[in-house]
Write a structure and sequence with these properties.
The protein is mainly β and about 100 residues long. Helices cover about 0% and strands about 30% of the residues.
């Protein structure tokens, strides 16, 4: 399976879309889980598999502000991304050694 080699952040409320070749990170819940209006995608039930609902994982879900989604691209070319963290500079989070900040 190809490695994740690129990430980006999109703001759908600003009319931004998932770039070509990228996928949006999704949050999976068992059927019956609460998912935002028109965000769920039902899976097919398989061998011993239970159905689930998949919705784009809003990184700003604890706020009533705009939606923010993380997208990724898999490829056999390029350097794999081996670590990813979210920071809150306003709460005093510091950048760990060896990490690079992605500016918008």
């Amino acid at each position: 399976r190809p490695c994740v080699t690129a990430v980006c952040v999109i703001y759908p409320d600003k009319m931004e879309f998932v770039p070509p070749g990228f996928s949006v990170v999704r949050h999976y819940q068992p059927n019956g889980g609460k998912v935002g209006k028109n965000e769920g995608v039902k899976s097919k039930e398989g061998d011993g598999d239970h159905g689930f609902t998949a919705a784009p994982a809003n990184m700003n879900c604890f706020s009533s502000r705009e939606r923010v989604y993380l997208c990724y691209r898999r490829s056999r070319e390029g350097n794999p991304i081996t670590g990813l963290i979210c920071l809150h500079p306003s709460k005093g989070d510091l950048i760990p050694e060896g990490y690079t900040v992605l500016e918008r």
